[in-house]
TrEMBL record, chains A, B:
Its EC number is 4.3.1.19. GO terms for molecular function: ATP binding; L-serine ammonia-lyase activity; magnesium ion binding; pyridoxal phosphate binding; serine racemase activity; threonine deaminase activity; threonine racemase activity. It is an enzyme of class 4 (lyase). It comes from Aureliella helgolandensis. This is L-threonine dehydratase catabolic TdcB. Its cofactor is Mn(2+); Ca(2+); Mg(2+); pyridoxal 5'-phosphate. Belongs to the serine/threonine dehydratase family. PANTHER family: SERINE / THREONINE RACEMASE FAMILY MEMBER, SERINE RACEMASE. It comes from the Bacteria. Residues 34-320 form the Tryptophan synthase beta chain-like PALP domain. GO terms for biological process: D-serine biosynthetic process. Keywords: Lyase, Magnesium, Pyridoxal phosphate.
């Protein structure tokens, strides 16, 4: 169980020294508006009654490519200078950022190269291919991914668009936070899944820079609890293993995302594999939105800690919906 | 295949003689606003590109009780006179109307009695029980359902709220049409599943009374193509069998819904069981909304006839999302 101690916000952090500002996120929102979906924030009556809090889902599973990653990728690609852009973009990703970058590159009509772990789900590999890009497969760990991406960059002259440790990517993901504020101005708490921290740092900056009293929690798999351990140790820790069912969260924080998270997050809620699978089922059966396991981790955190949120208006970010048929069978 | 001949609208129909008017639907919208979700209309980029038309989904799977039925049921229950209401309500339904009426009755704190076919999906039986109502089971045909409901009404003095052949129910369902017009004013075509015709007649009246040039198509399972045959014969026909996978559509039209449908619908698109199952899978995998088979019938009709809709803005009504785990396994 998580103590959910209300952490004092570290007011010593100067926002001007962080990788992104509120203004960057606002600029991103304007830049990407025509290319992303303003996803609905959907209230679930059944869970609200069950848990005695007002439960809303920010449905990024309905975003293009089925994940919030479409936001950061298109913001990064549209931000490229016109002399650099034609050489293309390169990245590594366990899946959704790969498809998002392939889509963004095709919108700007530039080449994309993507490195993916060989154990990526079949549907995520297929999504990249649907944009005419053949993924380069690698071993499923951060070092192998980063090395393969660097090699491709050196060979092609393409710009590396990191899946999370990139200011334009972080600013793009932060638009999720702006939309939650617009869609539910009276929100009390937001729960966001954390892998590399691109979404979390963006949402934190979007919300905390304006409304520091709104609680923002991260949700993380126990099998990849590196962010929770990083918060405790004060430095970026690595996941102990790379096989959580929440395949989108099998990575560590970046040096740009970590300082923002450390300064602004209220707490990190760690959830078991069983809780993640149960939440994925709850999404299908009770919420009727398709979430992939990574996309259900924030709901798992609410389910395991609902008593803490009694009487509150809670926004749960459903980060992605690319549940493949193998994944369905496992449920 | 369906010829999709553009049927001349029968202008001889006097709207003032039909069971509901546009005004009834507008009144219903105001009455039920606090008790229903204004469900999102979600565009799907992937299917839009695949079929060269602009595909939007009206996500009534995200409605309370997971189906549009919440609208008509609460409109009917709130419309009851205060001297009649305390004796409660009674109905028969293959599922979603049952849960919707149980919910509506619990909101008004009056008793509800519901008759359901014994082969109703387990999750739909459970949904009714979740509002404290034990379903009365009957044989899976219209005659048995109606007789059991009449008997309960006679015993209890409760008001019968028919699942579709009721003006207040039809008006409530019609609010789906009003919302589509507000959310996508430039819509060219709307596709609506038809069972008893409550949703279809309501949507037709909402749209055609204001914008007769917007095409409204019904979608119906081949195994329950009674509405298509009724349109041809000019009288209400019965389904030939009662076992389509689209369990919400195993019923015939009513004498209040049929005249509106006959006068206003552009055409009825009939789809196979295979097409319905394929569309249910497409909803899960590509749209990332959970649809029950009945809720995917309109998408099946689009998938089978997409060439007809080239270049058009199409709103596909996802009528319900109560897909149970047995249903999932079948996919």
């Amino acid at each position: 169980m998580n103590p959910l101690h209300e952490k004092q916000i570290t007011t010593s952090m100067s926002h001007s020294h962080s990788a992104i500002s509120l203004r960057d996120i606002q600029t991103a929102a304007a830049r990407i508006a025509a290319h992303v979906i303003r996803t609905p924030l959907v209230r679930c009556e059944q869970l609200s009654q069950r848990w005695k809090c007002d439960v809303h889902f920010k449905a990024e599973n309905l975003q293009h490519v089925g994940a919030f990653k479409a936001r950061g990728a298109i913001n990064a690609v549209l931000s490229l200078d016109s002399d650099v852009a034609p050489r293309g973009v390169v990245t590594h990703s366990s899946g959704n950022h790969a498809a998002a970058l392939a889509r963004a590159a095709s919108l700007r009509q530039i080449p994309a190269h993507v490195v993916m772990p060989h154990n990526s789900p079949a549907n995520k590999l297929a999504a990249v291919r649907s944009y005419g890009v053949e993924p380069v497969l690698c071993e499923p760990n951060s070092a192998a991914r980063e090395e393969a991406a660097r090699k491709l960059r050196d060979e092609t002259g393409a710009t590396l668009i990191h899946p999370f440790n990139d200011p334009q990517v972080m600013a793009g993901q932060g638009t999720v936070g702006l939309e939650i504020l617009e869609q539910l101005p009276e929100v009390d708490a937001v729960i966001v899944p954390v892998g590399g921290g691109g979404l979390l740092s963006g949402v934190l900056m979007a919300i905390k820079s304006q409304y520091p009293d709104i609680a923002v929690y991260a949700a993380e798999p126990e099998w990849a609890d590196d962010a929770a351990r990083s918060l405790k140790s004060g430095r970026i820790e690595l996941p102990a293993r790379y096989d959580t069912v929440a395949d989108g969260l099998r990575t560590h924080l970046g040096d740009l995302t970590f300082p923002i998270i450390r300064a602004l997050v209220n707490d990190i809620l760690v959830v078991s594999e069983e809780a993640i699978l149960a939440a994925t089922r709850t999404m299908l059966r009770d919420v009727r939105l398709v979430a992939e396991p990574s996309g259900a981790v924030a709901l798992a955190a609410l389910a395991e800690n609902y008593a803490h949120f009694e009487g509150q208006r809670v926004a749960v970010v459903v980060s992605g919906g690319n549940l493949d048929l193998d994944g369905l069978k496992r449920l």
